[in-house]
From TrEMBL:
This is GNAT family N-acetyltransferase. It comes from Streptomyces niveus. The lineage of its organism: Bacteria, Bacillati, Actinomycetota, Actinomycetes, Kitasatosporales. Residues 26-189 form the N-acetyltransferase domain. Pfam families: Acetyltransf_3. InterPro entries: Acyl_CoA_acyltransferase, GNAT_dom, Ribosomal_N-acetyltransferase.
Length: 214
């Protein structure tokens, strides 16, 4: 991809162990394979949308199509940045950052998933810290939101470590059942007070206009 056409392909976020970037077709194929291999146990559903309740082949295809769709549907007013997360040279998961009217609100939201084979290593915390650095330090965010099911202790612990505070709850229908979903919010002061992961941004400036920023 020629960077002048879509400079987001040149954006990289690095931490001591990870690299996050918009995947080219090769990395996107790797990401699809990670999704196919499994993201969670079959008897639980950590996501609001039960996108993993399909065959491995369908998960791979949906992952591939969805990320390409975020590129195709991007506008400076409404955008969703889907980053492939690499650890030890392997793609291991996906970290998202999205917003509507970010230039006005200064608020964005995050979402993520990590291949089941790579969970329990602190990667989830490190990749969220990376994208929070992009939001607050790189894009000048004022606040960030996230959420998790009440029984998703691992995700809630990650948010707590990074300084998020409770922001209400809601009951959602997932797999035809009522589920308790917790909303979370992080302001700039909370982020600064809980920063522990060194993060570096590379190649951001050419993409600022795509985020609605001048």
């Amino acid at each position: 991809m020629e960077p002048a056409v879509w400079p987001l392909y040149d954006l990289r976020i690095t931490t001591p162990r990870l690299e996050l970037r918009l995947p080219d077709l090769d990395r996107l194929s790797e990401l699809a394979a990670v999704a196919a291999a499994g993201v969670h146990d079959a008897d639980r559903m950590p996501f609001v949308a039960a996108w993993t309740d399909v065959s491995p082949e369908e998960r791979a295809r949906a992952t591939f199509q969805h990320l390409l769709g975020t590129v195709a549907g991007w506008t400076p007013r409404k955008w969703s940045l889907g980053l492939a997360v690499s650890w030890e040279g392997k793609v291991v998961g996906r970290q998202d950052l999205g917003a509507t009217d970010f230039a006005v609100t200064g608020e964005a939201h995050t979402g993520s998933w990590l291949g089941q084979a790579y969970q329990g290593r602190g990667i989830g915390t490190e990749m969220r810290a990376a994208v929070l650095h992009l939001a607050f330090e790189g894009l000048g965010a004022r606040s960030m939101t996230s959420g998790a099911m009440a029984d998703n202790a691992r995700s809630l612990r990650v948010s707590e470590k990074l300084g998020y505070r409770p922001d209400g709850r809601e009951v959602l229908s997932v797999r035809g059942e009522a589920r308790d979903h917790r909303r979370l919010r992080l302001d700039r002061a909370g982020w600064e007070a809980h920063r522990t992961v060194p993060v570096e941004l590379h190649g951001l400036e050419p993409s600022l206009a795509l985020f609605g920023l001048q």
